[in-house]
Specification:
The chain contains 7 helices and 15 strands. It has helices at residues 18-31, 44-54, 70-76, 90-93, 111-126, 131-148, 203-209, and strands at 10-14, 36-41, 58-62, 82-87, 103-106, 161-166, 169-174, 178-184, 187-192, 196-199, 215-219, 222-225, 229-234, 240-244, 250-253. Helix 3 (70-76) links the parallel strand 3 (58-62) and strand 4 (82-87). Helix 2 runs parallel beside helix 3 (70-76). It starts with 9 loop residues before the first strand and ends in an 11-residue tail after the last strand.
C-alpha cells in the first residue's frame, strides 16, 4: 500500500441480540461496502475488549447491554472514535444528539436511516467533532436514560425482530408484521401477510417476550397480534373466532380465553 493510500474505515458492532447484530452487519455491507467490520460483541465488556484490540474508527452500540451499557462503553472508548447508538428510544433521545457529535439508529433499522447515518459518519471521519462536543452529547444522553428506565435492573425489553426460516432462506421479520404465532410440533409458525415462516422458539417463550398489550393468547397453540384482527365472531353455540385483516383464515378462540373478547 502506498503512503498516500488510505486504509478503509474499521467498525465494531455491539448488541446482545445476535440476530440484530448480524442484520446490521449485513445492511452495512450493502450501504457502506468499504467499511470493515472488525468484530461483533454481545455485551459491554466484550465491546471494550474489542475496542482495545482493533482500535476502530466507528462504534455501533446497543444502548442496553449486559455488563456495561452502550453509553458506558462510549465513555471509555478512545477519543476520536465515532459513536452510533442503536436504540428504541428515538422520541426521547433526540435532544442528546442535536450537536451531531454522536448519532443514533432506531430499531428496527431501515436502509434509508442507515444511509443517512453513513453520510454523517463519513463527514465526521473527515472532520471529527471536538472532544468536548462528544462529551456533552454523552452527558445529555446520560441524563435521558434514567428517566426512561433503560438502565433499570430487571427492565423487560420486548421482542422487536424475529429471525425465521422461509424455505432455504432466513428472513428478519418485525413483530409488527406478525398476524399470529401458532405452535407447530417442535417449532412455531409465524404468519404474516406474505406467508408462513418457522422459528425454533416455543410459544411459551414467545408469550414472555412479546408485548402483552398487543399479543393475546387465544388458544393453547395460538397467540394473535390484535392490530391484525378485523373482527370477532360468535357462532350459534357461542364459540368465538377472529377474522384477520390480511389473511383469509379465521382463528378459533378457546373457551379459556373467550372472556377477553366479550366486550369487543
Amino acid at each position: 500500500m502506498s503512503a498516500t493510500e488510505e486504509l478503509p474505515p474499521r467498525a465494531l458492532i455491539a448488541d446482545d441480540e445476535p440476530h440484530l447484530a448480524q442484520y446490521l452487519r449485513e445492511r452495512l455491507a450493502a450501504v457502506w461496502p468499504e467499511l470493515e467490520i472488525a468484530g461483533v460483541a454481545g455485551d459491554g465488556p466484550e465491546a471494550l475488549r474489542l475496542v482495545e484490540e482493533h482500535d476502530p474508527d466507528v462504534l455501533f452500540l446497543d444502548i442496553r447491554m449486559p455488563g456495561l451499557t452502550g453509553l458506558e462503553v462510549a465513555r471509555r472508548a478512545a477519543a476520536g472514535v465515532q459513536v452510533v447508538f442503536v436504540t428504541a428510544y428515538d422520541q426521547y433521545a433526540v435532544d442528546a444528539f442535536e450537536r451531531e457529535a454522536v448519532d443514533y439508529i432506531v430499531k428496527p433499522v431501515t436502509d434509508e436511516r442507515l444511509r443517512e447515518t453513513v453520510r454523517r459518519l463519513r463527514e465526521r471521519l473527515r472532520s471529527p467533532p471536538p472532544p468536548e462536543a462528544v462529551a456533552a452529547a454523552l452527558e445529555a444522553l446520560g441524563r435521558v436514560l434514567p428517566a426512561l428506565g433503560a438502565a433499570a435492573p430487571g427492565a423487560v425489553e420486548r421482542l422487536a425482530w424475529i429471525r425465521a426460516a422461509i424455505g432455504s432462506q432466513v428472513r428478519l421479520i418485525s413483530v409488527d408484521e406478525v398476524c399470529y404465532f401458532q405452535a407447530n410440533d417442535k417449532y412455531t409458525s409465524v404468519f404474516t401477510r406474505e406467508g408462513e415462516a418457522l422459528i425454533r422458539t416455543s410459544l411459551k417463550e414467545l408469550a414472555e417476550q412479546v408485548d402483552p398489550a398487543r399479543f393475546w393468547q387465544i388458544h393453547r397453540s395460538t397467540i394473535v397480534n390484535l392490530t391484525h384482527v378485523a373482527a370477532t365472531m360468535r357462532d350459534v353455540s357461542g364459540r368465538t373466532s377472529l377474522r384477520l385483516k390480511s389473511r383469509p383464515e379465521t382463528l378459533a378462540v378457546s373457551r379459556a380465553f373467550a372472556h377477553r373478547f366479550r366486550q369487543m
